[in-house]
């Protein structure tokens, strides 16, 4: 039990300090090569409230590839721990190694692959040329197609290689059998999770929320005796906290798609690996609320010609009401912790 706890907390702390250590190097190149948007993409919301809360100056002068810090620190941590187990073989070092075929290979591959796809996305936006970079409608269509393809690949792996075809129902011994529909279900969950990426709109907001969510999954995996997966989830949380250290106001850089795509896609994978898909909306409630606010706003504008919120996503609505951005961020963090705890209890008790 003690070694299991060390196996989770040691690489988590190591990843945090690695992230802190490599950030100055990355930041130097972020600013040297001016890795930020050169032009602002056309928006569907040009209201006075939107202009009030939208920090276009920061968007056009702050690097947007900060998510590299997260997945790079995760990769370096995993490599170091694995290398130690090879160079200094012992029961302890082998125990600390959390790279395993049945638990962490898939989420790690998903994290890196999605991060690289997101990095290409960021590069196109930084270049600021073409309809993809400047037109919000084209951007959304390309992003949806990309996620559907990625979701289909990962969902197929779950179905055909891991033999998963059903979902656990909380507080019940019954399972929701999906059969081949498991693959489209995975795609839908991935799209829904990624839709919450619009939470990356205020300095420090997404980092605090996502670090909490991944910490919750570290706890769930630990008590499910998936210790390698718990360590991996903890490491991602540690890398995200390292990013957050530099992302609090005023942000040195933004997470960008290379971070948000990597984390949200990986989060979907963790939900399926821990069989907690139906609990995910509770654990990730801030993402759900943020995404839902956009859907409600768009639907209301098209059907009623009226807005429900002053600005969508929801965090900007609170800013438009007069809340300082730091107050919005702190309260989101609090809500995130509360719902993560509730979700963990349901996942473990159910």
Structural commentary:
With 350 residues, the chain is an all-alpha fold. It has one domain. Helices cover 71% and strands 2% of the residues. It has helices at residues 2-32, 48-53, 56-59, 67-87, 91-96, 105-127, 130-134, 136-161, 182-195, 205-223, 227-247, 256-273, 280-283, 285-303, 314-320, 325-349; strands at 166-168, 175-177. A two-stranded antiparallel ribbon has the order 1-2. A hairpin with a 6-residue loop joins strand 1 (166-168) and strand 2 (175-177). The longest helix has 31 residues, at 2-32. The radius of gyration is 20 Å and the shape is globular. The mean pLDDT is 91.
Task: State the separation between the terminal residues, measured CA to CA.
Answer: 23 Å
Helix content: over 70%
Judged by helices, strands and strand pairing, the structural class is: mainly alpha
Strand order of the largest sheet: 1-2
Q: Strand percentage, roughly?
A: under 5%
Overall 3D geometry?
globular
The total of beta strands comes to: 2
Mean pLDDT: 91
Q: How many discrete domains? A: 1
Could you give a quick summary of the protein structure above?
This protein has 350 residues and is mostly helical.
Helices and strands in order, then pairings?
Blueprint: H1 2-32, H2 48-53, H3 56-59, H4 67-87, H5 91-96, H6 105-127, H7 130-134, H8 136-161, E1 166-168, E2 175-177, H9 182-195, H10 205-223, H11 227-247, H12 256-273, H13 280-283, H14 285-303, H15 314-320, H16 325-349
Antiparallel strand pairs: 1-2
């Amino acid at each position: 039990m003690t070694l299991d706890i060390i196996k989770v907390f040691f690489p988590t702390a190591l990843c945090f300090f690695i992230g802190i250590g490599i950030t100055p190097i990355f930041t130097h190149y972020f600013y040297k090569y001016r890795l930020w948007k050169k032009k602002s993409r056309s928006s569907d919301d040009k209201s006075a409230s939107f202009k009030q809360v939208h920090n276009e100056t920061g968007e056009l002068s702050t690097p947007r590839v900060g998510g590299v810090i997260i997945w790079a620190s995760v990769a370096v941590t995993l490599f170091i721990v694995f290398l130690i187990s090879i160079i200094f073989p012992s029961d302890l070092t082998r125990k600390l190694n959390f790279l395993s075929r049945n638990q962490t290979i898939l989420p790690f591959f998903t994290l890196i692959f999605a991060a690289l796809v997101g990095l290409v996305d960021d590069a196109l936006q930084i270049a600021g040329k073409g309809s993809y970079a400047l037109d919000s409608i084209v951007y959304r269509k390309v992003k949806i197609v990309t996620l559907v393809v990625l979701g289909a690949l990962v969902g197929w792996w779950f179905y055909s290689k891991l033999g998963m075809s059903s979902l656990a129902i909380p507080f019940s011994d019954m399972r929701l059998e999906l059969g081949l529909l498991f693959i489209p279900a995975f795609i839908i969950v991935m799209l829904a999770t990624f839709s919450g990426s619009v939470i990356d709109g205020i300095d420090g907001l997404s980092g605090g929320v996502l670090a909490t969510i991944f910490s919750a999954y570290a706890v769930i995996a630990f008590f499910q005796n998936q210790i390698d997966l718990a360590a991996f989830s903890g490491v991602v949380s540690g890398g995200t906290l390292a990013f957050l250290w530099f992302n609090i106001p005023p942000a040195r850089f933004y997470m960008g798609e290379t971070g948000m795509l990597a984390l949200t896609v990986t989060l979907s994978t963790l939900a399926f690996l821990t069989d907690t898909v139906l609990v995910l909306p509770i654990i990730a409630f801030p993402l759900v609320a943020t995404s839902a606010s956009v859907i409600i706003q768009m639907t209301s504008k098209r059907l009623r010609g009226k807005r429900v919120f002053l600005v969508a996503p929801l965090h900007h609505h609170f800013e438009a009401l007069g809340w300082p951005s730091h107050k919005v961020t702190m309260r989101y963090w609090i809500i995130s912790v509360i719902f993560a705890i509730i979700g963990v209890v349901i996942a473990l008790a159910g």
